[in-house]
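>> received
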Amino acid sequence: MKYTCSVIIHKPLQEVVAKFNDVDNLKHWQPGFVSYEHVSGEYGKPGAVSNFTFLMGKKKMVLTETILVNNLPEEFSVKFGGGSMKNIVKSYFKSIDENTTSYESDNEFHMKGAMKILGWIMPGAFKKQSMVYVNNFKAFVEKGTSVAS
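>> returned
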């Protein structure tokens, strides 16, 4: 399953990318974010591996991230793996003018087992959740709005 989510953020490219690239900001735009742990590789470089822990309701979920491309401010691409699902997220940033940035998130999911059935039955749910993250990020950058509790 593949889809793209995009928004226009009314802030300069460098400010948008700086906020995106700071792991301390994840709690402000990713609901359920608990922690980040660098595991291996050179931090921020392709091949680096990190674990992200989320709390979804009462269930803890750990996703392993591998950086595929870090060519910021233009592109940051990662692969997430956890259980029966793998997800490749390619994030693209483009300056529209000195105070406006385009943020595009290309998402590709590979699922097996029950997750594959869920993805087939409810593909819109995955895009909807990705749009929540994209819109949360926009609100955080533009207005300082945080989803952290």
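>> Residues 123-143 form the longest helix (21 residues).
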